[in-house]
Amino acid sequence: MTEQSDDTTPTIEINYADGIPNNVDLYADRRLQRAMEKWHPKFLDWWNASGPDGFQTADVYLRTAVGVDPKGWAVFDHVKMPDYRWGILLANKIEDRKIGFGRHKGEPAWQEVPGEYRSLLKRLLIIQGDTEPASVEQQRYLGKTCPSLYDLRNLFQVNVEEGRHLWAMAYLLQKYFGRDGREEAEALLERRSGSADKPRLLGAFNEKTPDWLSFFMFTFFTDRDGKMQLESLAQSGFDPLSRTCRFMLTEEAHHMYVGESGVARTMQRTTQAMTEAGVTDPYDIEAVRKLGVIDLPTLQKKVNFHFSVTLDLFGSEISTNAGNAFSAGIKGRFREDSIEDDHQLLNDTYSLLRCINKRLVMVDEPAVNAINARLLDDYISNVESGLKRWNRVLEKTDFDFTIDLPHRAFNRRIGEFSNVSVTPDGEILTTQKWQQQQADWLPSEEDERYLQSLMKPVVERGAYANWIAPPKSGINKKPGDFEYVALH
Ligand SMILES: [Fe+2]
Ligand SMILES: [Fe+2]
């Protein structure tokens, strides 16, 4: 299990009151320092305009990354979010690191941007960088309906760390891409999630995150896409990118933990309330909703939605762009360094599900064109292990209900399956029939209204909204009634 709670985050004592925490010799590179100093106030403007609404003066018990030593890289303290020390931290350099895949395999890793791959690399940084502020924007209003101070703090922890990930990408752009890198770093602060004229670059990052269940599902499913992308970029032959992503992954684990445990606590509370009230049929939605908890069929619909929109983030299953990035040594496969093959894929094939003449069939394709399909497979198996842990919560109850993943072709807008209407079971329907049944598979307006009706803020210390169970343990071993967020 890669998920890690704050509970196990090693802490160190360090004075981080002045300067930007960094291990990139920021203050030795005058040009970079000037660029970051110009960017910093614009970042703060963005944070104040688009970050958590209404909590900028609250003292939040936050984890701040101040170093990269696995034995101690973070400090915990009450901080006002605008004062958070967003730092620039890269995993330690591996001496004599070599490029691990593609046509440059075995050559020394690049410390500067190779000219021939400049635009390819820049594009990848922009896309990764764009997702980081986007999720903060999507979650802007959630604080107002928090189910507890513990959850409120977790939301803000995720938000400030996405902010730091934005810093990480802005750093790479400004350090290695000259003037257009600086312009792109600013553009990352100008696009907005859901905006009509300047939307974020990827579809799922323009969706709304209107309620806390959506937030937990987002961090479980969509942050996990982030993890897969970071894992692939951590393999990069461009060493500064690899080191940046390796450190980002240490923070990312907590985001998925927030999602996984948030949904598990929701299920736990639902089944507990049903048992107490003697409701035996999980499909008796009316009876369950009377208890003020989230019925399991609605949880399943949320899974269907978040899983399918997240799959679209991987891009087309068959992709020459992804193949080019692989062959160039810029973006590897998931944990490339533990795969046993020649890491060049010159004659290899990969078998994947395709949609051919409106039929779903397994086809062998040149492996180098199927990089995205493979990452998607790795993602799905990663999701499945989290789902197993959710289902274990249900197994412990008397209810006969499991949460299942929908078919990968269900509800897709991008890639192989974007032109077919497929049910969660993998059956192809006419578009009309699919639309008629859609409300059985995806949250309906009524479902969303019900979820909204539950979203009432609970801000007393140690208290939790009726629809969610308290966590098993506190953050950084804090007691149950700890003031995770001091509101003013
Ligand atoms: Fe991130
Ligand atoms: Fe994240």
Attached small molecules? fe (ii) ion
Look at the structure and give the CATH class.
Mainly Alpha
Mean pLDDT: 94
Radius of gyration: 23 Å
Oligomer: single chain
CATH topology: Ribonucleotide Reductase, subunit A
The profile of the biggest β sheet is: 3 strands, antiparallel
Largest beta sheet: what is the strand line-up? 2-1-7
* Helical proportion, percent range: 40-55%
Distance between the termini: 38 Å
**Secondary structure tally, helices:** 12
Beta-strand residue percentage: 5-15%
CATH superfamily: Ribonucleotide Reductase, subunit A
Structural domain tally: 1
Shape, per Cα inertia axes? globular
Low-pLDDT windows of residues: 1-8, 10-17
The tally of strands reads 7
Q: Main traits of this protein?
A:
488 residues; mainly alpha; Ribonucleotide Reductase, subunit A; 3-stranded antiparallel beta sheet; two-stranded antiparallel sheet; 12 helices; 7 strands; 7% strand; disordered N terminus
